[in-house]
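Record 1 of the preview.
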Amino acid sequence: MSIFNNYLAVDWSANSKPKIGADSVWLAWLSNTCELSLFNPRTRFDALNMIKRLLKDADGRVLAGFDFPFGYPKVFFDGLGLLKWSDLWTELFERIIDSTNNNNNRFEVANYFNSLFPESGPFWGHPMPNDGRYINIPFKKPVGYGCFLPNEKRSIEALIKSTKTVWQLNGAGSVGGQALLGIPIVESLRKSVSTSIWPFESSISKVVCAEIYPSMYKIENTERIKDANQVKAVVKRLHGLDVKGELEQIMSIPSKLKGSECTHEGWILGAVN
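->
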């Protein structure tokens, strides 16, 4: 028996201006009637409102997957004086400013976080030109990860080699920027809908949010845009696993993980250690 009735996959973006098409936000929604819908909102603000409507109107439980990291290596929390994942989510929700036109302060927030480390901070990749606002963010990847800096990769990123580091803010594969702007979005959902965050919390709410990695799945190129094909593939795969009764077992993975992965780092849904 399926444990969810609806499935949502979100391909995120850290664009600083409204954008549609490739490398923008894409949503795929697969309802309990097996009707699949695709959405390509112009901004993160529009995406958030769309997601809230989908979740509010959903008939039954929802598994919502987001394509950005939900956590960071534990040493990062220590440097910020935070105890666990929810402390950081609250911190980001309060510090990140993401306007209705995608203008945001992710670099300023990363610059502040880096300033809290005695040597240099873990975030890198400031925008050009750098007019002095980001003096704590190096342009290139720093040295010292795992020594005087947090680990470069979370456990899941060490397992899945094609994943990108949470520290890169700019350029191709800048997952770090997406996480800084994405986590406050999911935190906003927690405040408006009965929501659990996997693998940090038990999955008993109407909505369960989890980190996904669409590159894990076989993609059918039925759409012109790669991002659209990816989110379609994710919701179809999650639905298929649920119908077979395999999704519940996959979501029990936290019982096999180390402590920090369930308190600080997070995990990609469907990845097997």
